Amino acid sequence: MQPQILLLDEPCSALDPLSTEKIEQLVVNLKTQLTIVIVTHNLAQAERIAQQTAFFASNSEGVGQLIEFQETATLFHSPQSPLTRDYVSGRIG
Question: What is the pTM of this model?
Answer without folding.
Answer: 0.85
